Amino acid sequence: MISLQTLKTQVKKYILILVIVALNTLSPAQAENTNNKNLTLTETPITKALYKPFIERYILDDLKLLRQEQQQLRVDFVEKVANARLDISDRALRYTADTTTNIFYIITIAATLLVLLGWRSLQDIRDNIKTITSKQISDLTKKYEKRLSEIEDKARVRSEQIISTQQGIANTNLIHSLWVRSGIAKSEQEKINIFDEILDLAPDDIEALTYKADTLLDIDEDTWSLSLSSRAIEIDDKYALAYWQRACAKAKLGHHDDAIADIKLAIDLTDSLKTEVMNEIYFENLKNNKKFQILIGKIENN
User: What is the DSSP track for the chain?
Assistant: First the structure.
């Protein structure tokens, strides 16, 4: 089992990684303002963050160390299970040997007494003792075989759980790194490829579906974007950004009434989207629509 100290260490590492990623995702304007404030000795400001490669390298090294610790944990667990099996087997064999020895002592004593008292019933008693001894040994053997089988089943289930958990952690770390890459990708096609890698690991990731749909709109793949948005809504019908993205796709395709209906659903689910309606570039062709104007009026009055 994972010790409390190891758990604390891993939690601290995750918190540190999250802080570093948060610092790494500062907008260029914030980074420039911070650099301008700290300039005291030079006249030319450094506009490009020089620490990003070191942060990415630190995150990759930390993830590698975490995977190594998980692998070492698995090796330790397997070793403990193997030692436990050997210990149980030794106990079973020792108990069986001791029991058999005691039975033979009893048989010897009984046989000696019978020899002293008479030979007539010795053969019958000997046969009965052999039968009883064989039956007891057989019962003990079956009992310990059953226990060993149960222990092996539990160990196998536990091993499968550890492997599954380890694979889940590895996938989570990989997905996180892919999201970081998508944030610094320079082209829409590169972003789409990264979202595809995320969806290969987690096919029902509604955020990846929605952001991929948004990227597809930028390269005029409106029908594809509409399909991905609808798929995200089928997975989670309470995800407001999926309705918003589908509204953008419908607006570009000319389905104005359906687009307005999706905008209303998105606003009902997330009230903060009201301030983004007038700023969304894909809603430009809706501004002459009466239903859209009524919706804007309601938002402004509220």
Answer: ---HHHHHHHHHHHHHHHHHHHHHT--HHHHHHHHHHH-SS-SS---S-SSHHHHHHHHHHHHHHHHHHHHHHHHHHHHHHHHHHHHHHHHHHHHHHHHHHHHHHHHHHHHHHHHHH-STTHHHHHHHHHHHHHHHHHHHHHHHHHHHHHHHHHHHHHHHHHHHHHHHHHHHHHHHHHHHHHHH--SHHHHHHHHHHHHHH-TT-HHHHHHHHHHHHHTT-HHHHHHHHHHHHHH-TT-HHHHHHHHHHHHHHT-HHHHHHHHHHHHHH-GGGGGGTTT-GGGGGGTT-HHHHHHHHHHHH-
The pLDDT of residue 37 is: 46
pLDDT of residue 179: 78
Q: What is the CATH number of the domain that holds 264?
A: 1.25.40.10
The count of structural domains within the chain is 2
* pLDDT value, residue 174: 79
- Position 257 in a domain: yes
Residue 195 and residue 177 share a domain: no
CB atoms within 10 A of CB 100: 14
Q: Give yes or no: residues 148 and 240 share one domain.
A: no
Same domain, 93 and 177: yes
* pLDDT for the residue 47: 52
171 and 195 part of one domain: no
At 127-164, the pLDDT tens digits run 777 788 888 888 888 888 888 888 888 888 888 888 88
Tokens 């969806």 belong to 199
Do 210 and 132 lie in one domain? The reply is no
- Enclosing domain of residue 244: 191-301
State both tokens at 92: 């079973």
- Taking only the tens place, the pLDDT of each residue in 56-84 is 777 877 788 888 888 888 888 888 888 88
